[in-house]
Amino acid sequence: MKWVFIVALCVILFGIHVSAAVTLAKTAKLAKNKFFRLAFYLIITDACLMIEYVWMVITMNINELSIDGPHQYHCIVMVHLSPAAILCSLLMTFCMCLHRLNATFTTPKIVLSALTSNIAIGLGFLFVHVYVLFRCVLELLSTRVPLPCDPLYNTQKSFLLFVDVPNAIFVSLIACCYIVVIWRIRKKQYLVMEIATLSEEQIKQQRKSSLRMRYNMITLGCIIVVTACSILPRTVYGLYINVSDNINPEIVRATNNLLLINPLVDPFIYIFRIKEIRSQFARRCFRSNKTMPTTMTTTQPATASTSAVPQT
After folding, report:
1. Rg, Å, the chain Cα set
2. In 3-state terms, what secondary structure has residue 31?
3. What share of the chain in percent tops pLDDT 70?
4. pLDDT tens-digit profile of 168-200?
5. What digits encode the pLDDT tens for the residues 44-69?
6. Can you list the domains of the chain with their CATH numbers?
7. Is this model's pTM higher than 0.90 or not?
8. Disordered: where is this region (predicted)?
9. Is 136 in contact with 215 (CB distance < 8 Å)?
10. Which residues of 175-199 are buried (b: 16+ CB within 10 A; e: fewer)?
11. Do residues 99 and 34 touch, judged by C-beta distance below 8 A?
12. Beta strands in the chain (DSSP E)
């Protein structure tokens, strides 16, 4: 009954994602800070992945994998929707890198601002789902599709080229963009150190901006490392299978389950790395109702003292 544990874990993770999304939505910076808004979209995408993964795991374990039936159609849909959620998650992470890159320029670049706008994100979300669901429709109409509930279904070469190669490209773009951002931050710091005509107020603002940028880069770095550890093992092993023709079903299941690392760790990164979310959680956890008793005890002596004062 290992799958029951996976389902329970996904349900708990979904609750954590919803809680983190609600907490982030209540922060004052969500409407003003684009980095927070992209993090909010990433949390929503990971939460959707949890629901899709639960549906797929339940369908695959309560039905016979080698028998045709309606559950096979469910598996086809879920096996395609889950990669769509992963691609959207990578898209959000890439947009966060582009946003940090744009912040390294003194004057924001119009192209980078457009690529990280709400319209571009919405179009990217739509394109990813159209791209993945197009193949899903073709698979539903085809009569020669292998049994999709089998875990080996998503290791076939056509599936790897359609889904895993774009994942690897996204991870590479994210890593390259992150390296460029770090290089630009270093270069900017050296330029500031060489300028001796700055006032004390300008130096304080520069240090504050640099500290905020460094803090956001550490948060983004944690997300990128988790994303790479979650996605690349499945992609690398899938490519190895198609080269060597040696398939180990246990390794396939393990690499498929590794995809849960990303939505598993991301909410905790936001909770511990973003100050506003951390303070919101602390406020909820340590909220007390001590105000009512104190007001009751303070009002009673006040009325008594006023009645004891002689009237003039």
Report:
1. 26
2. coil
3. 77
4. 899 889 888 888 888 887 777 666 555 555 566
5. 888 888 888 888 888 888 888 778 88
6. 2-283 (1.20.1070.10)
7. no
8. 292-312
9. no
10. eebbeebeeebeebeeeeeeeeeee
11. yes
12. none
